[in-house]
């Protein structure tokens, strides 16, 4: 199990001060042995508690301010020309020394309109074509009709790709065309576990088998006292959790569901949740410890408790060899 930090960067306040605070939190996380930082993206018509547009731009800024591995969770394909994305992701992999993971989701149709791009063809076919184009652009053996990213990515064959999505086709795509599956924050545990099972089944492996990846992002508030942890979550997570609630976006295995916060509690409770995830084949969890309105002291205390009492039980401190993790599905 690998543990990282997911950043919430809001469009409700100036960006640079938020990033400066986030970098301080990342330094704290790195000292405790967390291995990665992840950034999502959104294209809104009005300011929201998260995320900013252009995850790659934010990650490029972070590349010079942290030595943690970088990940997008997730980048929305409808906001990008796949050919341009191939170049930009390769360049970011250069900037971070070959430590980029590209988490991809399709995004809603309005994302394309707000990005000034046209939406054409069946969504699934477009997603599959984009994945093939990225692979070809990062491969030395690409045919003459495909773009070839110059400079190429540091990782042989390009950054590892994780695919998100709530339907069976998403798990199949993650298993056959990508390197892993990514479960969003608003996926309740039963949906995450269902998609994990489908992913590993498509790979023909037992959950947690060699080479595959199932990652997820979770809101996280930890305190020595369980009631205090829940009170802090109720006080400080409302803006972020309310975003999903207002849109009916909490999803269970059978459709829309009530909110669920499995990573809020004591270190012992967090340890039990991670054990349940590991049994289901989840290999990577990114913790949203500082959503909009969360005092930095609360985020640091969560990281302290996870770092001292939980992470040593689960975290693999050995960094992956560059290029190895992207070999499994090619």
From TrEMBL:
Domain (Luciferase-like) ranges: 16-283
Pfam families in the cross-refs: Bac_luciferase
Mind listing the GO molecular function terms for this protein? monooxygenase activity; oxidoreductase activity, acting on paired donors, with incorporation or reduction of molecular oxygen
Sorted alphabetically, which keywords does the UniProt record give?
Monooxygenase, Oxidoreductase
Q: Name one GO cellular component term.
A: cytosol
The keyword Oxidoreductase is assigned to this record: yes
Query: Which InterPro entries does the annotation name?
Result: Bact_Lucif_Oxidored, Luciferase-like_dom, Luciferase-like_sf
Question: Does the record carry Oxidoreductase as a key word?
Answer: yes
**Protein name as annotated:** Alkanesulfonate monooxygenase SsuD/methylene tetrahydromethanopterin reductase-like flavin-dependent oxidoreductase (Luciferase family)
Organism field: Pseudosporangium ferrugineum
């Amino acid at each position: 199990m690998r543990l990282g930090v997911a950043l919430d960067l809001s469009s409700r306040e100036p960006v640079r001060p938020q990033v400066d605070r986030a970098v301080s939190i990342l330094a704290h996380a790195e000292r405790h042995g967390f291995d990665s930082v992840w950034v999502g993206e959104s294209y809104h018509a009005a300011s929201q508690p998260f995320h900013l547009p252009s995850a790659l731009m934010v990650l490029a800024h972070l590349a010079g301010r942290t030595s943690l591995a970088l990940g997008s969770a997730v980048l929305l394909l409808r906001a990008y020309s796949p050919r341009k994305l191939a170049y930009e992701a390769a360049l970011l992999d250069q900037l971070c020394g070959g430590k980029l993971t590209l988490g991809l989701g399709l995004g809603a149709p309005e994302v394309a309109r707000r990005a000034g791009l046209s939406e054409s063809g069946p969504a699934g076919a477009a997603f599959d074509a984009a994945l093939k184009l990225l692979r070809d652009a990062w491969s030395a053996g690409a045919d003459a009709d495909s773009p070839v990213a110059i400079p190429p990515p540091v990782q042989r064959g390009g950054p590892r790709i994780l695919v998100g999505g709530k339907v069976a086709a998403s798990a199949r795509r993650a298993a056959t065309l990508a390197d892993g599956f990514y479960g969003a924050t608003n996926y309740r545990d039963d949906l995450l576990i269902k998609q994990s099972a489908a992913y590993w089944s498509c790979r023909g492996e037992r959950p947690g088998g060699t080479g595959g990846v199932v990652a997820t992002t979770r809101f996280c508030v930890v305190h020595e006292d369980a009631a205090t942890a829940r009170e802090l979550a109720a006080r400080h997570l409302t803006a972020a959790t309310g975003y999903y609630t207002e849109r009916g976006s909490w999803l269970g295995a059978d459709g829309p569901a009530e909110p669920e916060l499995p990573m809020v509690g004591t270190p012992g409770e967090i340890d039990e949740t991670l054990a349940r995830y590991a049994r289901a084949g989840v290999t990577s969890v990114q913790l949203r410890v500082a959503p909009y309105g969360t005092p930095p002291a609360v985020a640091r205390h969560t990281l302290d408790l996870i770092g001292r009492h939980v992470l040593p039980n689960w975290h693999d401190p050995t960094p992956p060899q560059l290029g190895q993790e992207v070999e499994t599905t090619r």
